[in-house]
Amino acid sequence: MFDNRNYCGKLSSGDIGNEVLLAGWIDRKRDLGGIVFLELRDVTGIVQVVFDSSSIPEETQRAEKVRSEFCVMVKGSVVKRTEETVNPNLTTGDIEIKAEHLEVLAESEVPPFPIDSQDKLSEEIRLRYRFLDLRRAEMRDAVISRHRTMQVTRQFLSSHNFYEIETPMLNKSTPEGARDFLVPSRISRGMFYALPQSPQLFKQILMVSGFDRYFQIVKCFRDEDLRNDRQPEFTQVDLEMSFVSPDMVMREIEGLLVEMVGAIQGRDIPTPFPRITYDEAMSRYGKDAPDTRFGLELTDCTDIFGESGFKVFQSTLENGGIIKAMVVPDEGKISRKMIDDYIEYVKAYRAMGLPTVRYNNGNFETGISKFLSDDEKKTLSERLSLEGNVLVIFSCDRKQVVNDALGNLREHIAEQMKMVDGDAMNFIWVYDFPLLEYDHQDERYYAMHHPFTAPKPDDVEKLESLSPQNAEDIRAQAYDVVLNGMEIGGGSIRINKMEMQRKMFNILGISEEEARVKFSFLLEALQYGAPPHGGIALGLDRILMLLLKRESIREVIPFPKTQKGQCLMSNAPSPVAAQQLKDLSIKVVEP
Length: 591
Ligand code: ASP
Fold this sequence. Notes:
Helix content: 25-40%
Distance between the termini: 56 Å
Bound molecules: aspartic acid
Oligomer: single chain
CATH topology of the largest domain: BirA Bifunctional Protein, domain 2
Largest sheet: 8 strands, mixed
Low-confidence stretches: none
Number of strands: 22
CATH class of the largest domain: Alpha Beta
Strand content: 15-25%
Radius of gyration: 30 Å
Shape: globular
CATH architecture of the largest domain: 2-Layer Sandwich
Strand order of the largest sheet: 6-9-10-22-21-20-17-11
């Protein structure tokens, strides 16, 4: 009976005169007494159907009784709307369906929220009734855009000689980084699998096996405390290549992102993307994922204040801290109250204050102006290219505090002063990340990316004289791709030599025994002619969120979890039957 079904949203004036069969849901009904208008919706859009009791009295009576979200089938013919009834808000607004037949396929309860609601709906209700939420145009668009993105990804990578290869979901637990999600084994009682945090080891193994270009659109699982842009399960576009340089990986990814943006936004973005080193990113923006849609760059002024008469600067320098400045053009509009708010804002980043000074066409005024010597003023004006009427905001503290405070304040002010071009898509590569970080509390080194990342060839020697002080000087062949201030992917060239991998484990405090237990198969594989290789993983959810300009990744995931890791629709996670636990030899200790 549904043979030759037409799609509501695809009808146009080209179909005028055609007989059509439509099936979908009632979006809205207007009953004018004798004439009933039904707006019929399917996955492609909405079309108006008209029932006229003067020609089809019984069908019209039935149409009077349907309600929103009933699932119906309609037969009729496509007619042109009269000039005054054309609806410019509908893509099908210049036509309508003159109904001949209506059949209710399934009735509907009154939905907990109107599907066409323009008001902001509570997220809890939306997630509880996700099956209805997904009927809303906004969510339908997100799901379809996601589909398209995955399709262009497959097309692009396949045509660039990548093989799509699946890696296992049930793995060996190798805690390093985030916490694993565990799956108990029934057959091997007392044993556990772990869900993959990423297919990292398997994709490297595939390189050793000779599949020289691999990709996968893959779910990854990390049992972390959830922040706003995190999900316990998320999707990566994961890839790995043999015989590559960082530059080759970057160029492939640029090509792929061009395709993605084209598919979603229908526009061309310029390549190559700008590239800056990690050091430069930290110095100019205070962050390793800089938002380059606006200026407000940071400038180091530590050397200017060696003889400063300002006590706060003096003691910063005595304690080995740094002084950085940000120039905010404001034409005198930033009030004392706003500055107080900024000071309050940076407290979250452990900054104790923000000395300021106003520069007004050659004169330094207010704030710390009385502490500035003529020399300092001169050097400051030159270094910061001061002109017009601007506010100079300083931060002085340990390097990390200064970067955190000004890096975040920079984004806050840009937002507040509407300096961010909402349409811009600023992609940027950040490369030459440090290989290691030293954690003073844990008194050990951590891999900044992961333990399989290769150092830069020029820096390998420095590993011999590694110390907590020079740890960050050793650079890795690692790179991140950033969009509008958000990291959307990261990767590296890997270690392909056994000795180097051993050395790396050693530095990271992973004993030979531990390495053997956790990574034996990788270590073994590295002994059989492992090719030079590298790769990257892109966060599909984040990319979609940014390309569709949504507020959270939950808006682009069909069935997301809440911040507490719950699915409000299915009620996962949930207790399991006693027998299931018994089969697994598991006893739950009440928390
Ligand atoms: N596996 C890494 C990650 O998930 C990405 C990579 O190095 O390719 O972050």
